[in-house]
Design a protein that fits this description.
This protein is of the alpha+beta class and 392 residues long. The chain has 2 domains: 53 residues; 320 residues, Class I glutamine amidotransferase (GATase) domain (Rossmann fold, 3-Layer(aba) Sandwich). It contains 7 helices and 20 strands. The strands form 5 sheets. It has a 9-stranded mixed sheet, sandwiched between helices. It has a 3-stranded antiparallel sheet with strand order 5-9-10. A 3-stranded antiparallel sheet has the order 6-12-13, with no helix packed on it. A hairpin with a 2-residue loop joins strand 14 and strand 15. The two termini are 13 Å apart.
Length: 392
């Protein structure tokens, strides 16, 4: 009985120690999250302190309360304290510049990610150049390669009864590792971009590039014009990337995202709230729109990114041929918008890419390895404790 008791006591102590080791291993493996609330909502700050309008803010807050807690920043500045518990910041077409301290607060906040920063701009019509300068200055400061072209985009065919009320196609690049299918889920109608600008990108040398013609690994083109759009130059400064005499009857990108480490930077030529008529709009001049669904999908996509610890999914694509089996990285293609003669009855095509492959998705890294190692440790400790107890 004495030896048996000692064995049981030793085994019990070993089991407790192993359980602690297992808990530590599991905690080390679990994906991290930012300031998500206890019920799984993300915290979204809507900036209203830099000249932005609050048009449709109440609709956004009221309709998306199941996925996000909204903070409205009014008559205040962006500080580390304000940003401390925030997952997503949206600047909806700022007309007043951010101070150097505010920009530094945003940079530090992004460095402590995963976080999402959505910077919405404007066309170069009227006071638009000022907004574009503010947006581009901020994009450069946070390290993004996305920029707004210093012009406007119009469409004489696909519009809400005026060429400057441009209809956009929600058709994100097909990138399963970034879960982009969430963005277009349930969308069958266009979204409104009222007097918008277009998004381009610049390289490390400052040279501008046509984002509509280049698909980059860490960038996601999300909202497009139809292929009946054209570029215009209304006010100084001059265009940097496009030529009005050449860039017409083609597609442009009006909203894109760039993945920087564990952060996402979004740049758009119009705003989800504020503006003359924001992207949230569900109908405009008798044109039925999917604005609320699109903004909701974007917030849901941000939520997924934050909950996943700011990490892309691991995607394994296996393609089988009659002679061999190959494993390769998934690629995607971006179809252009579909042209019809009546803008008011147009529904943009959903779906992108043509990926003829079987895709397997796994989340996290090293989860199974950590658990197996912990189990082995448990077994070793129990055996050692039992042997020690019997020896006594």
């Amino acid at each position: 009985m004495g030896a048996s008791y000692r064995w049981l006591r030793g085994a019990a102590v070993a089991t407790v120690a192993a359980a602690v080791l297992l808990a530590v291993a599991s905690a080390a493996w679990a994906p991290t999250a930012a300031a998500m609330t206890s019920d799984g909502k993300i915290v979204v700050l809507l900036d209203l302190s830099h000249g932005e309008s609050d048009k449709y803010v109440n609709y956004i807050v009221g309709n998306l309360s199941d996925i996000a807690v909204f903070v409205l920043l009014k008559n205040a500045t962006l500080t580390p304290e304000v940003l401390g518990n925030v997952d997503v910041v949206i600047l909806g077409q700022p007309t007043a510049s951010l101070s150097s301290d505010e920009i530094q607060a945003l940079i530090d906040w992004l460095d402590s990610g995963p976080h999402v920063l959505w910077i919405a701009g404007d066309s170069d019509y009227g006071s638009g150049p000022q907004v574009q300068e503010i947006v581009n200055t901020l994009l450069e400061a946070v390290g993004s390669h996305l920029r707004l072209e210093t012009g406007s985009v119009y469409d004489n065919v696909h519009n809400a009864q005026r060429f400057y009320r441009v209809l956009g196609v929600v058709n994100p690049d097909d990138k399963p590792e970034y879960n982009t299918s969430v963005i277009k889920e349930g969308i069958t109608k266009p979204v409104l971009y009222h007097g918008p600008g277009v998004v381009i990108w610049v390289d490390d040398q400052g040279n501008c590039h046509d984002l509509a013609k280049e698909e980059l690994p860490n960038m996601i083109r999300i909202v497009w014009t139809y292929d009946t759009a054209y570029i215009a130059d209304n006010n100084a400064p001059p265009l940097t990337c496009y030529d009005p005499t050449v860039d017409k009857n083609r597609t442009f990108v009006m909203l894109a995202a760039e993945v920087l480490g564990d952060d996402i930077i979004v740049a758009s030529g119009e705003s989800p709230y504020g503006d003359y008529e924001p992207t949230w709009s569900w109908e405009y001049y008798n044109v039925s729109l999917d604005g609320p669904r699109f903004v909701s999908n974007m917030i849901s996509w941000f939520k997924w990114w934050i909950a996943n610890g700011g990490k892309p999914l691991e995607i394994t694509t296996t393609t089988t041929t009659p002679t061999q089996t190959a494993t390769s990285t998934a690629t995607s293609t971006q179809p252009a918008g579909t042209t019809t003669s009546q803008a008011q009855t147009t529904t943009p095509t959903g779906g992108a890419g043509g990926q003829a492959a079987t895709t397997t998705t796994t989340q996290g890294k090293g989860g199974n390895t950590a658990l197996i190692a912990a189990a082995v440790v448990i077994i070793i400790i129990i055996i050692a404790a039992a042997a020690l107890a019997l020896r006594r």
